[in-house]
Each structure stands twice: as C-alpha cells, then as structure tokens.
Amino acid sequence: MALTFDRGRTIRLLVIPALFDEANKLRRQTINVMRRLDLAGVDTFAPDLPGCNESAASLPQQTLAIWRDATADASRHFKATHTLTVRASAILAPDGLPGWAWAPTGGRQALRGMIRARTIAAKEAGRPEKTEDIQTLGRSEGVELAGWRIGATMFRDLETANPADHLIEIPQSDLGGPGLWLRAEPDEDASQAESLAAILSIALELNP
Known about the structure:
It is a single chain. Helix 1 (about 20-40) crosses helix 6 (about 190-205) and helix 4 (about 130-140) crosses helix 5 (about 150-160). This protein is α/β, with parallel strands linked by helices and about 210 residues long. About 40% of the residues lie in helices and about 15% in strands. The strands form two sheets. Strands 1-3-2-4-5-8 form a six-stranded mixed β-sheet, sandwiched between helices. The two termini are about 30 Å apart. The protein is globular and about 55 Å long. Strand 2 (about 10-15), helix 1 and strand 3 (about 45) form a beta-alpha-beta unit. It contains six helices and eight strands.
C-alpha cells in the first residue's frame, strides 16, 4: 500500500516516511508536503514499509535489509527519479537514487529517543528500568518501544545504521521552526510544509 499523487509527470519523488514514533508525529506534515509538491508538478509516492500501517507483514520479523529491499522495490515500481527521506528513514534511501534528507538522523539516535521515553514512562509508573537493560533485551529478544515491537535483528541493525551519504541534507533550521517530532502529539505546520516544498521545488528547477 502507498499514498500517492500520481499524474504521470516527469519528476517522480519517492517519499520514505519517518520511522517508529516519529512516523506518527510526522505523517500529517509529510502528506501536507506531498500535496504542495503535487501542485508544483511533482508526482509523489509514500509507501508503507513492511509491518507498518496497512502492511500485513509482522513488524517484529522485519530487518533493516528487508526495509531497504522494500524501498528499492518501491523506487522501481513507481519509476522514481528522486527520493525524499524523513528523519531516520535516511538509513533506507535506495542506492543511486538522488534526493534529499529532511533533518536526517541515524538508527542509534532513533533508538535512543524511544528508549529514553520508555525509561521515563517506567519511572513514572513506579517500575524504573535502566537503559542498559533495555538495550540488552532489545539485542537478544527484541523489545517494545513507543508502542512498536522491534525484533532483535532490527534492534541490532539500527544501532549501527547511518544516513545515506549521497543525499543532500535539508536541516530543520531551514524550515523556520522546531521539528514537529519534538511535540508530544502529532501535529502539522503549514509554514514549514510550504518551506520544505519550496526548497524541493527550487532544487528540482520548478516554480515554487
């Protein structure tokens, strides 16, 4: 399954959504950017990763290799000419496909934020957990973080996964405000969506 804006145009952008808890926080904003790019003349495609959203696959069985194969398959299926990654999805960018990374981060950083949230919640519930114990569990058996059941192989993969180095970084500071992933609940920001769409439109030599 994929969310698409497909009118058969020349420029076809594969959008790889943010991962795990940030996927929830940034989904509306990502769609808002896609809508603006549609108006600018860009076809966009945001596929569900295996185990996520409408996918029937089991999330705990997923590995980084499976997700990377999935994004590569999506790139070929939609005949993508460029890609846009969102936060930690920069670790999934297909090789050789030019594009941009919006506020990229690595797998270790993605895990760190979710582990921290779990330790805070555990402390508030009166059953404190240590970061080291969560990491050990994640590496050996898998672990649930921010409502996402991450398998052991995926956990170990994420610990060493870095953003693709062939993408052009779009830092959050270029969008005129703090990242929406820092907010407690999913949200959207029209001004930031406009800014990101404009940056991409200019880079693609379109009229923003």
